[in-house]
Each structure stands twice: as structure tokens, then as C-alpha cells.
Amino acid sequence: MDLKDILVCLDATDAGEGRLRLAAAIAREHHAHLSAAYLLPRSIPAGAVSPAAGGGPPTGAAWLPQSGSAPRDASGESDEPSTVSLADIIEERFREEVRPHAIEGDWHLFAAGEGDQLAELLKTVDLAIFGQNAPDDHVPAHFRPEDLVMASGRPALIVPYAGAFASVGRRVLVAWDGTREASRALHDALPLIGNAAAVTVMTVRAHEAGTDPKEASLDRVVRHLERHGLRARPEQLVGSDISISDALLSRAADLDIDLIVAGAYHHSRLREALFGGVSRDFLDHMTVPVLMSH
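Below the sequence we write its predicted C-alpha cells.
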């Protein structure tokens, strides 16, 4: 299935600006409709942002209006960025990004308690693009990427808060363990990786010796991708003292990977919350974009 309906969640950071540009690049490549969603900060009403209200202008200079002039009030006087609506600034940047390329798109605002409404919107898109939560983020419940992946059932491209990512899907690492979630993520990723120069399908074995059913499954996945015209190769890692997520991220660095494909939450969310897991580790330590599905 082609990507024809994409939604990107934006925030007033440099990472949010980079996420917008990546989303627009993907939309151009796939001739897709691109919508944007913005979460209104809990401490700031849907009106003017002011230092006294605890808000301020976007932290990234790229979010400032690109026309070279600040918004003007009814008297014709220019407002400083700290007194104009933050949501309006970000919406204008979204419009400026899509307008020159004739990308159609919608703009959506959500208050802190409207996570369910965003999840409902996400159920009707082909791909959602989120940002990784930075350590100092205070994201309301139901707005975290993992919550939205679980609630919407749609594939999510999660982009790290650090680093620059102009494109994804040219050098791909598929984390494969034969689960339903891994299969779902792999097939959801096919539209993004159709032009990949190299795909590595990696699994982790518990022991060196003996027959592992993952080996036959790994070979089948490689053949399946080859039938899609993709240059794929299998790779097995024998379990070690480092975590699976660390091993995958280390290998991604070795191979100069620009996209990791992984299933999300193979076990119950309660078990993941109590004991951790690969999904949680990925989201905490990711260094390249990750395509996740559940």
C-alpha cells in the first residue's frame, strides 16, 4: 500500500522543525496528503503567549515566521514573538513548508486532555510521525508516542530529538524475532523502504549451538524482501551481556543505518512497565528514526 495520508506531530523545538521537514520530504516523495497536529501547552491558553504566563517563543529560531516580518496586530504594529500565539507561528511554518510543493494538508490543535481525539484521528492515516520524548519533556498522558502507537494501531515513525534526518529508508535495519508485531512493522515499512540500497534483517539468538527456529524464519524474511526487489541480507547476533536494544543500536551505527524497523510491545504494557523491554529501551536511547507498529 502506498503512503497517501500522513500526520506529523509538531512542537516548538528545533527537533520539531526537523520533523516537519522530514515529514514534508516523505509526503513529496509519495505524493501524499500531510496533516499536522500540535498539542497546546497546559500552562498556556489558546491565546497569546507571554513570559508572564510561563511561555515564550519557540526555542528554535527556525520556527520564527519565514517571511522576514513578525505578525502585526490591528494597529499595524509588529508583535514580538513572545506575545504572538505560539500555535499560530507553528501553523504558519507548516503552511510555508507545504505550500511551495503543492502538498495538501490539514492543521489540528489538541488540548492536554484530548489524547483520545488525536488517537481517533491517527486511526485514519497511513503513517504517523512523532518525536522522541526528550528527558526534560513533560508530555501529558495519552500523548506519548508509545501511547499513541498502542491506541491507534497505525505505524509510527519516531524521530530522535537529537540529530538531523533529511530522509529515511535508504539503509535499513529490520529487528526480526518472528512475532506478530515484528511482521506487522516489516510490512508497514515497505512503502518507506521500497528504494532502500541495503536492508539488514537482524535477529538475536540465545545460544550459538543448536537449531533455532528463528534461523529459518530469518531466511524466509530475506527471500520475501528480495521478491519486493530489495537487497536484503540476514544477520544473527548471539546473546551477550548487553541488552538487545543496545546491540541493535550499536549495529545500526556500524552500518550507518537511517531507519530501524521494529515491532512494539510484544508483551503486555504492564509487563513492559514492570520489567522494561526492547520497545522501552529503543524509545529511551534511539539514535536514528524507528518505525514501530503494534
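Residues 5-159 form a domain with the Rossmann fold fold (CATH 3.40.50.620).
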